Amino acid sequence: MKITTEMIKELRATTGVGILDCRKALQEAEGDYDKAVDFLRQKGMKKAAKRADRDAGDGVVELYSHGDGRIGVILELNCETDFVARGETFRELAHELALQIAAESPLFVSEEDVPEEVLEREAEIARKRFIEEGKPENIIDKIVEGRLSKYKEEICLMQQKYIRDDSLTIKDYIMGKVGSLGENIVVRRFQRWELGEHIGN
């Protein structure tokens, strides 16, 4: 299939990737736009994986207020250089992540940060509920495991679905930016406040 300039422009507008990479992706995908996007995404993730061990000591602290000041988020997002930290793409990423935190209320950055006692408590609650519902004893462990996996997707920022594109997790979304910016990017920490929470608890 002939790869046209219009096809390359459309793919470039969506992905922000260079013209030659877009052409190659479309050739690999035989003109299939969705396959070309997937090809570029996977390529970006492979590049990102190579950069994951590099030190990310620069970055930005993003402050975000939502709903006329009813929800506030503070986020530290790190990269490797001041040049990238000052760039529009990195700033937009920090803003998008703060918006995600405001909307989806994660409790931890990634599943590695979840304390074991939190998972044990959730597993115990799930186990009791499934026993009460009369689920067969031999499958309860499997069901609890599934529930814990779902729970981690809810409470861990990196495992959450991106609010603007639920085909991506936040980890996928960040990896795509790592691939295009060429630097390691790390969500260091965040805090979310909502007006009136914990009052009366």
Question: Unreliable stretches, pLDDT < 50, 5 or more residues?
Answer: none
Order of helices and strands: HHHEEHHHHEEHE
CATH homologous superfamily grouping of the largest domain: Elongation factor Ts, dimerisation domain
Number of helices: 8
What is the percent of helical residues? 40-55%
CATH topology of the largest domain: Tetrahydropterin Synthase, Chain A
Strand order, sheet with most strands = 1-2-5
Number of E-state strands: 5
The secondary-structure class comes to alpha+beta
Mean pLDDT: 85
Q: Roughly how many Å is the radius of gyration?
A: 20 Å
**Strand residues, percent:** 15-25%
CATH class of the largest domain: Alpha Beta
Largest sheet: 3 strands, antiparallel
CATH architecture of the largest domain: 2-Layer Sandwich
- Whole-number tally of structural domains: 3
Morphology? globular
Q: Give the CA-CA distance, first to last residue.
A: 64 Å
Question: Could you explain the architecture of this structure?
Answer:
The chain is of the alpha+beta class. Strand 1 (58-66) and strand 2 form a beta hairpin. It is globular, with a radius of gyration of 20 Å. The strands form two sheets. The chain has a three-stranded antiparallel β-sheet with strand order 1-2-5. It has eight helices and five strands. The protein has helices at residues 5-15, 19-28, 33-51, 82-85, 88-104, 116-132, 137-155, 170-181; strands spanning 58-66, 71-79, 161-162, 165-169, 186-194. The chain has three domains: 5-51, Helicase, Ruva Protein, domain 3 (Orthogonal Bundle), CATH 1.10.8.10; 58-110 and 156-194, Elongation factor Ts, dimerisation domain (Tetrahydropterin Synthase, Chain A), CATH 3.30.479.20; 115-154, GTP Cyclohydrolase I, Chain A, domain 1 (Orthogonal Bundle), CATH 1.10.286.
